[in-house]
């Protein structure tokens, strides 16, 4: 066999002692033929003694390789952990950048919407101010005198014909520079909200007379966005 050819034994029984030397398996002792047990033990002890240095070196090399492998594994694990930490840090950074960009975009959109809303309100004021009828004179017996109190403390006075729709009161307040953009008009005695804003369901609100308002009334403008 190949093992027999490698060991080149001459007779039996045959005992070979093989050790790792210089990174290869080497036969360091051969026992051939019949021997007394004591002789075998002595020969083996002598072989071990003769090769003890090589065995110690082999063990040290093995331990060193094991230590080197362990250190390399620890370094690899530390590198992987550091890499994952860096990747997670970069992911969080990119996520924060994306979040800030989205928030800035939302702020720009809100600012644009607010600007468009203000422009639309200004356009509506220019359109509605021309629809407000002329103020009747004090002597008109069919007029109503209104004291209008705005949220900022401004006090307005205006007369309308009692037969006119109360929407003109809404237009008048809406077009005033001190008035809020979203509001309702209420009376105190009795306390009620006047349906003066035209809506799709009621494009033509009732007249002052139809609402039972007297010749002189005080109304309050309530800011719906306050």
TrEMBL record:
Boundaries of every UBX domain copy: 146-221
Residue span of region Disordered: 97-117
Entry's Gene Ontology molecular function annotations: ubiquitin binding
GO term, biological process aspect, one: ERAD pathway
GO cellular component: endoplasmic reticulum
Gene3D superfamilies, alphabetized: Glutaredoxin, Phosphatidylinositol 3-kinase Catalytic Subunit, Chain A, domain 1
Transmembrane residue ranges: none
SUPFAM superfamilies according to UniProt: Ubiquitin-like
Domain of life per record: Eukaryota
Protein's recorded name: Putative fas associated factor family member 2
Annotated source species: Amblyomma cajennense
